[in-house]
Amino acid sequence: MKKPSLRFKYSVLMTALTTAAYCSGAPAQTSSPNLPDTAAAWAKASRQDINEAYQVTLDNHPGTYDRQNPGFKKHLDQARDNALALADQVKDAATYSAVLNRFNVSIHDGHAGARTTFPASTAPAARWPGFITVWRDKGLYVYAAEAGKPDAGSEVISCDGKPAKQLIADNVFSFKGRSEEAGHWWVYSGELFVDKSNPFITLPKACQFAYQGKTTTHALQWQDQNQVFFNWAKSAYAGEKLALGISEPRKNLLWFAMPTFQPNAEERKTYEDMTQDILEHRERALNADAIVIDLRHNQGGSSAWSRRFAEALWGKDRVSRQMNAYFANTETWWRASQGNTRFILDIAEKFRQENRNDMAAWAKQHGENMQAALEKKELFYVQQTARATDKLAKPVADLPTDPQKLKTPVYVIVAGDCASACLDALDVFTRFDNTTLIGAPSAADSTYMEVRMNPLSSGLASAVIPNKVYVNRPRLAGQVYQPAIVATDLVWSVSSFQKIVENDLVKRK
């Protein structure tokens, strides 16, 4: 990678495209597909789609030839075999989805696999047992419950004689998420008590709960999800979703809510105003007791928003020096397959037609370089980078031209689904020693980025294909950010996090 800014620029580019169903390798899906009308037809479709997704991935995914990840093809082969072993039992949309999920989870890479494209309403309505659970550090707890159910705050000990953690591994992580990533336990464990008609798991019938020193057993009564479920689910594992912007829970405690890095037009204006406010009134941040950056519910988007915010907070040149040093040895390798190359060239033309000339020129440059590599039968186009000097590799702490150094404690709230551009934000924020992460472990990225969705011929799903791989990225594939302070409160409210911040400020005195 030449400069971190190129990475941010391309994130903006791909954010725009992934929301537009713009694909290569097959026509874009513009309407609901014709669904199979018999169990045999569903089973046949699942076998065809698994094999097609496998082959499209093998032919185009950078991981196939990634020397840093020699196990990629083994995982891909295992994913195909695991899914095909279940395919003959597919009979409807729910079982088809379960088999694709089995394919995905076996690859161990969030930027590979296949995603269904038919409406979620095709599958039967999900059910629940009248209570919602959340993972808090090392256990699963009841977050909220209807009358007669286990008390809120109860820990789930076991179900049908099987420990809760083992049951989560069997029923949840066998079909979703990656159990080796600490953050995914916070995100997905609660789905143990959500029935999505997966026929390959056994639903719990009776569970043991511990609460205030007593252990009780409750027989589960599965029922259709209702409005109560949806109301609780909105704030269960990560708390309320704040509107993007600045607030001040008390004087001199600045709270910056950033629930998305994929903002709409109104939110983009808010980001711009928020960043400008820091630049024009930086003394407010310098004199604050603490600054909180709230990333709850943020699953990524464009890295540009966090980068600009950080530049305003710490100083543009400071951030650039730190990031240049951090990525000093990082390179970007573009997988020069026919499908990937056509995709990038098509992007260039799309942006040219939209008069977005800077993006068009940039995409055209990389597409043509990929085409040249393809014609020479080379597997990758390696983006040329200017090697960092010793000065860049060892960032200068401060320069006379830098703005006043920010010494205010900065607390970043992280949830278990923080991934992609959200992790890029942590890369930036944690370059500075006044930053403390609080909350949960983050999710993790592979080194494969900038995905395109390649529709499968059935119209029921699309294969997930990244176009590039980062080589020598300092944050390793699968590496999570661990919080310095774990938030174990059942309810992740602003007040609960404010209490964490206030207690830590007292300890600093």
From TrEMBL:
Residues 1-25 form the signal peptide. The keyword Ribonucleoprotein does not apply. Residues 258-459 form the Tail specific protease domain. One of its GO terms (biological process) is proteolysis. GO terms for molecular function: serine-type peptidase activity. Keywords: Signal. This is Peptidase S41-like protein. It comes from Undibacterium pigrum.
